[in-house]
Fold:
Amino acid sequence: MSDYIDLHLHTDCSDGSYTSKEIVQMAAEAGLRAISICDHDTLDGTDAALAAGQMYDVEVITGVELSVVWEEYNDVHLLGYGYDHHNPKLCQNLQEFRDFRRNRNVLIVERVNARLLEQNREPLDVADVQRRAAGAIGRPHIAMALIDHGYVRTTEEAFQKYLIPCNVPKRLFAIQEAIDLIHAAGGVAVLAHPQFIDPHRSVLLKLFDSFQQLGLDGIEAYNSGSSNDDIDWTITAAVQRKLLVTGGSDFHGSSKGDIVIGRGRGNLKTPYRCVEAIYEAIARRTVQ
Structure:
């Protein structure tokens, strides 16, 4: 087993291709020491991941990925780590999001079906799409159904021809609300893949400062959207602000097939020290 980790993985409880147990097994086969499953707005895979971690001798840190808004930024992603996944307030808020998400994606299926009927094609069966998901339906599950019916050849084509034109807007947290929710459950809040928010470093520095004032604890410096130079720059920016440095591949499975667990697109080597820093930050907050 190496001292490398992957703190950003997805399962079929949101929009990934594999179960929690399968993800943990794949992480073990990759020689990873620790992982975190960060499904979108749901904790459904957590208990199974923790149990599988014991089975495969992989340390599993509780994780979640929340979609948040701040000023003109409409889809910033915030990662929560090390929280109590049975915290009542956190569970209630995420249940409300899950209910909305389930209804949202059913509406998307209905819009897709309307387009298919216009094309004289057989519509998708919502129940069939639901069977592909362990939790709420995600758009990748709809894409898989479109591929299986032969309407498109790839996930990308499914999004371009159907899922983007038939989209229903997400419900999003305000970033302050999301940070407070993670803190109240005993965890730390980390900004995911900042290079996806804005490519301009001067803008990112201002965002880091603004989010830190709201309680942000860390930045996901090691990520699949960054070059090695981006990673080094982000680590420096985080250290200068005394923010945590974390990292993960954002592995989903078939919907992002070029991303590999633990390695991203080939250049990721996230050290175990990041996990230790998370626990240290949580301990400091507990003492306070």
Summary: Strands lie at 4-9, 34-37, 59-60, 63-70, 73-81, 173-174, 188-191, 218-223, 244-248, 270-271. The mean pLDDT is 93. The two ends are 35 Å apart (CA to CA). The CA atoms of residues 100 and 171 lie 7 Å apart.
